[in-house]
Design a protein that fits this description.
The complex is a heterodimer of chains A (364) and B (440). Chain A has 364 residues and is an alpha+beta fold. Chain A folds into three domains: 113 residues, DNA Polymerase III, subunit A, domain 2 (DNA Polymerase III, Chain A, domain 2, Roll), CATH 3.10.150; 119 residues, DNA Polymerase III, Chain A, domain 2 (Roll); 111 residues, DNA Polymerase III, Chain A, domain 2, CATH 3.10.150.10. A nine-stranded antiparallel β-sheet of chain A has the order 6-2-3-4-18-17-16-10-14. A nine-stranded antiparallel β-sheet of chain A has the order 15-11-12-13-27-26-25-19-23. A five-stranded antiparallel β-sheet of chain A has the order 5-1-7-8-9. Chain A is elongated and about 75 Å long. The longest helix of chain B has 22 residues. The chains are: A alpha+beta (364), B alpha+beta (440). At the A-B interface, loops of A face strand 11, helix 12, strand 13 and helix 13 of B.
Chain lengths: 364, 440
C-alpha cells in the first residue's frame, strides 16, 4: 500500500473511526483501525464488535493499493499533531510508515487478516432521510436515553418507522423525549428498532452536509446507515422498550408559552443555588407570571422572574433543573410548557414534532 | 475561655455491658470477640483483662497466654445498642445531649450557669450517678470538661476508669504536657512520624508551635483547626452530609462459596436499601465487592438514576454479579450505596412499573416496621435471614427503632432487659459519616 492523502480529510475520518475503537479490551485487534488504499479512495474501518464504521476519504492519490492495521488512537495523534498539508502512507508488511515534510513514523501494526468482518449494507434501504433531519431528531432525543442502565432496552433510542415518518423516543425512566423526522423515501411495512447510544453519538460526530441523504437498512438485530462517504453498522439493543404511549399526558389545564432563551436562562440561574442535596428548582405559575426559585441550606435562596404567557390556575411544582435545561437546549425560539398537577409530569413542546415529558420532584 | 463542653466516654463499653447483663462475668477478665474462633481478635476487653495487657485487637490465642482464665464472649451488638440508648436517656435526665459521637461517646454543651469548674463538675458527677442508677453499677464513664469538644475529649481520656477531669483555661497548656502526642485525636502513628521528623516529640513542644507551623506539618487547614482547638477555641461544628449507606460482612466458613457470598450480598443489599429509604435518600450508584480468602478481590459498580426501591437495586446487583468472571473462595463481602440524593428532591419514576416497585418497597418497609424485621422479605434472601446480623461501627450507632437492625431471634431476650423508651421528641441520630459500614 502506498498513497498520499490530504491531512485534514484524514484527520476527520480518523477522529470518527478512532472513537469506535476500544481503549480497554483484551482483544488488541479491536483497538486498531484498518487502513485500505484503493485506486480512488482511502478507506478507514473500525469495529468494536457492536458498532462498525467505514469512512471513505476521497482526497487521496494512490500509487499502490493495499491495506494495513494500526492502533487507532496513536495514528490519530500522529495526524492531529502534524501541520503538513498532505501525509504519505506506505505499508511494509504489518508496518505502516507515515511521512510528513519533516517527520517519519514507523507504526507497528497487526495482521490485517485477523480483523473481523464489518457488516455492510445489503439490498435496498428501508428508508432514506436527509442527514440534517436525522441529526436534528437524534439531538432532540439522545440526551434523555439512559446510560448503563440494567434495563437494557432504555440504553438506546427507539426508532419507529410509520409511512414517511420516523419517530424517535428516548427515556431514562424519569423523563422521556420524542421527536418526529420526515423521511425522503420509505419502503415496506412499519418497522421499529432500539438503536444504541454509541451509534447515535457517532452519527452526531460526523461532519455531514444537512442535505446529504442517509440510507437506512433495518435487519432483525442490526441497523446499517450509509452516506456517500460513511457506512455505520450497529447491533440493536435487545429487549422491550417501555410503553411510552402510556406516560404521555392526555390532558392538561395549565399552559405557559415562553421564549426558550429566557426560560433556559431562568432555570440555569435558579439552579445556581441548588445543591446535590436539594436538586429541585421550584416553578410558580399564576397571575404573577412565572417565578423560579431554589434554596440551598446554609447557602441561600434564588428567585428569578421569567416573562410568560400563561393560561390556567396557580401552581407550584418542582423539577430537577438539569432535566429542564437538557430539553430547553434543543427547543427552538418558543417553548410551550404544559402542566396538570404538582405530582404529575410536565410536558415541554416546541411545535415542531418535539415533545418532552418530565416527572417533577417533591419539594414539600 | 469559659468551660463550654462536657464529654462523656463510657469505659470498656462492650465488656462492661456484658458484665452488667451477665453477673457471672463481673470481676473476671472478659474479652469480647466477633465470633468464637482462635483466629479472631478481641474487639473489647474488660479492665481486669486490660490489667494483663489484653487490648482491642489482641488475638484470642495471645490473650489466652497473656491472661489465663480470660472469658471470651461473642459480641451482642443489639445489646450494646440497647444499652447505648439507655445511657443517652440517663445523660439526658441531667442535661441535654448536644452530639452523639459514637456508641460510647457523647457531648453536652454547658449552659451559662454551669460554666464554672465547680458547677460543671457537679453536672459530671450527676451524669455518672444517673448512668449508675438508670443503667447499672458496672457501666462506668469518664467525664471530661473543657472549653471545647476537642479538649473535653482529651480530658475524658486522662483519667480512666470512672474519672472526671476539668481542663480549665488557667490549666492550659501545662496540664496537657504529661500526655503523649498520640493521646490527641488527629495524631496517629503516621502523623506522629511527621512530627518526629521535625523534632517534635512532646506535647510541650507541640504547644509551642504556631498556626503556620501546624498548617505546614498537616499540609492544610486541618493544622489551623488543630491549633485553634488546642488553645481552647470553641469553633462551631462543621456541617456534615451523608454520602453513603453500606454494609459489609465477614462470611462464616459455611457461606464461603459463590452462592453463599451472593446470598449474603442480597441480604446486605436489602438491609442497606431499607436503611437508605428510612434515612430518606435515593441512590445514584451501587458498588459491590468480595475479598477472597487467599488474596485478591472482585469489585464492580453500576450507575443508578435516583433509585430507592429494592428490586431495581437487586436488578443492578444481579447484572454485575452475572458478569463477575473468575471467582475464588470468598471471605468478606460488602456493598455501598452512594451518590445519595434526598428522596424529597429526587425526580419520581415516570413509568408505572417503576412506580409499583417503589410502592412495593415502601409497603414492605411499613410491614417490617410494624411486625419486625424480615416479616416480609424477598424469596432469594430466605436462606440467609440469619446471616450478617447487626454490627456496630463505633462511629455509627444503629437506631433502636430501626427494624432493619433487629434479629427476630433476639427479641425475646431483650424483653427481659430493663425497659427504656426514648422520648418521642428525642431522636438520637449519630453524626453522619462518610462510610457507615457496620463491620468492626
Amino acid at each position: 500500500m502506498k498513497c498520499v492523502v490530504d491531512r485534514q480529510s484524514l484527520y476527520e475520518a480518523l477522529a470518527a473511526t478512532a472513537s469506535v475503537t476500544l481503549t480497554r479490551t483484551p482483544k488488541p485487534i479491536l483497538q486498531c483501525v484498518r487502513v485500505t488504499a484503493e485506486k480512488d479512495c482511502l478507506i478507514l474501518t473500525a469495529y468494536d464488535q457492536e458498532v462498525g464504521l467505514r469512512y471513505r476519504v476521497k482526497q487521496v492519490d494512490t500509487t499502490k493499493p493495499g491495506e494495513t492495521l494500526v492502533q487507532g488512537d496513536r495514528f490519530l495523534a500522529i495526524v492531529r499533531e502534524s501541520s503538513d498539508e498532505t501525509m504519505a502512507l506506505e505499508s511494509n508488511g504489518d508496518q505502516l510508515n507515515v511521512r510528513g515534510v519533516d517527520s517519519h513514523f514507523q507504526m507497528v501494526g497487526q495482521n490485517v487478516r485477523e480483523f473481523p468482518p464489518v457488516p455492510d449494507m445489503e439490498g435496498e434501504p428501508d428508508f432514506v432521510v436527509k442527514s440534517g433531519v436525522l441529526v436534528d431528531a437524534i439531538g432532540k432525543t439522545l440526551f434523555a436515553a439512559a446510560r448503563e442502565n440494567t434495563r437494557y432496552a432504555i440504553n438506546g433510542v427507539l426508532w419507529e418507522k410509520k409511512g414517511k415518518k420516523l419517530l424517535m423516543v428516548a427515556t431514562d425512566g424519569r423523563r422521556l423525549a420524542m421527536c418526529d423526522a420526515s423521511l425522503e423515501k420509505s419502503v415496506g411495512d412499519e418497522a421499529s428498532a432500539i438503536v444504541p447510544t454509541k451509534a447515535l453519538s457517532l452519527i452526531m460526530k460526523l461532519h455531514m452536509d444537512a442535505d446529504e441523504t442517509i440510507e437506512v437498512k433495518l435487519r432483525p438485530n442490526q441497523i446499517v446507515l450509509r452516506t456517500a462517504s460513511v457506512t455505520i453498522s450497529s447491533v440493536l439493543v435487545e429487549g422491550h422498550f417501555p410503553k411510552y404511549q402510556d406516560v404521555l399526558p392526555r390532558e392538561h389545564d395549565k399552559t405557559a408559552v415562553l421564549k426558550t432563551e429566557e426560560f433556559l436562562s431562568g432555570v440555569k440561574r435558579a439552579a445556581l443555588l441548588a445543591t446535590p442535596e436539594s436538586k429541585g428548582v421550584k416553578i410558580m405559575l399564576g397571575k404573577e407570571g412565572m417565578i423560579l426559585s431554589s434554596r440551598a441550606a446554609e447557602q441561600g435562596e434564588a428567585t428569578i422572574k421569567v416573562p410568560v404567557d400563561y393560561k390556567g390556575s396557580d401552581i407550584s411544582i418542582g423539577f430537577n433543573p438539569e432535566f429542564l435545561v437538557d430539553a430547553l437546549k434543543v427547543c427552538g425560539d418558543s417553548t410551550t410548557f404544559e402542566l396538570k398537577e404538582p405530582a404529575k409530569p410536565g410536558v415541554i413542546k416546541n411545535g415542531s414534532g418535539f415533545q418532552y415529558v418530565v416527572m417533577p420532584v417533591n419539594l414539600s | 475561655m469559659p468551660l463550654n463542653v462536657l464529654f462523656v466516654d463510657m469505659n470498656a463499653f462492650f465488656a462492661s455491658a456484658e458484665q452488667q447483663y451477665r453477673p457471672e462475668l463481673r470481676g473476671r477478665p472478659v474479652g469480647v470477640v466477633p465470633m468464637h474462633a482462635d483466629t479472631t481478635c478481641c474487639i473489647a476487653s474488660s479492665y481486669e483483662a486490660r490489667a494483663k495487657g489484653v487490648k482491642t485487637g489482641t488475638l484470642v490465642g495471645d490473650a489466652r497466654q497473656m491472661c489465663p482464665g480470660i472469658v471470651f464472649v461473642e459480641a451482642r451488638h443489639e445489646l450494646y445498642v440497647h444499652v447505648h440508648h439507655q445511657i443517652l436517656g440517663a445523660v439526658e435526665s441531667v442535661m441535654p445531649i448536644h452530639r452523639v459521637h459514637s456508641i460510647d461517646e457523647m457531648s453536652c454543651r454547658l449552659s451559662s450557669t454551669d460554666r464554672t469548674a465547680e458547677s460543671a463538675t457537679r453536672k459530671g458527677l450527676a451524669i455518672k450517678e444517673a448512668v449508675r442508677r438508670r443503667v447499672g453499677d458496672h457501666l462506668r464513664c469518664s467525664v471530661g470538661i473543657a472549653p471545647n469538644t476537642f479538649l473535653a475529649k482529651v480530658a475524658s481520656d486522662m483519667k480512666k476508669p470512672d474519672g472526671l477531669t476539668v481542663l480549665d483555661t488557667p490549666d492550659l497548656p501545662q496540664k496537657l504536657f504529661p500526655l503523649a502526642l498520640t493521646d490527641f485525636p488527629g495524631i496517629g502513628p503516621r502523623m506522629f512520624r511527621r512530627f518526629a521528623s521535625r523534632g517534635i516529640t512532646t506535647v510541650q513542644q507541640l504547644c509551642s508551635l504556631g498556626t503556620d507551623e501546624l498548617e505546614s506539618i498537616w499540609g492544610g487547614v486541618v493544622g489551623n483547626r488543630f491549633y485553634r482547638a488546642l488553645i481552647g477555641h470553641d469553633s462551631p461544628d462543621l456541617p456534615t452530609q451523608r454520602r453513603t449507606v453500606g454494609h459489609s460482612h465477614v462470611l462464616p466458613p459455611r457461606l464461603r462459596t459463590a452462592a453463599g457470598a451472593q446470598g449474603v450480598l442480597v441480604r446486605l443489599l436489602c438491609k442497606a436499601a431499607a436503611r437508605m429509604r428510612r434515612l430518606g435518600y435515593c441512590a445514584g450508584r451501587l458498588d459491590a465487592y468480595v475479598t477472597f480468602r487467599n488474596g485478591g478481590s472482585w469489585h464492580d459498580w453500576r450507575k443508578l438514576s435516583d433509585v430507592r426501591d429494592t428490586s431495581s437495586l437487586l436488578d443492578s446487583f444481579i447484572d454485575m454479579w452475572a458478569k463477575r468472571g473468575a471467582f475464588r473462595t470468598p471471605l468478606k463481602v460488602g456493598l455501598v450505596l452512594s451518590d445519595l440524593t434526598a428522596e424529597a428532591n429526587a425526580t419520581a419514576p415516570l413509568f408505572h412499573d417503576q412506580q409499583r416497585r417503589v410502592g412495593l418497597s415502601t409497603m414492605m418497609d411499613r410491614i417490617n416496621s410494624r411486625f419486625g424485621r424480615d416479616a416480609v422479605h424477598i424469596g432469594t434472601m430466605h436462606e440467609y435471614l440469619d446471616s450478617a446480623p447487626t454490627r456496630i461501627a463505633f462511629s455509627n450507632v444503629p437506631d433502636l427503632d430501626d427494624p432493619t437492625n433487629w434479629d427476630r431471634d433476639d427479641e425475646d431476650e431483650w424483653r427481659t432487659a430493663p425497659a427504656w423508651t426514648p422520648p418521642p421528641q428525642a431522636r438520637y441520630e449519630p453524626e453522619p459519616m462518610d462510610d457507615s459500614r457496620d463491620n468492626l
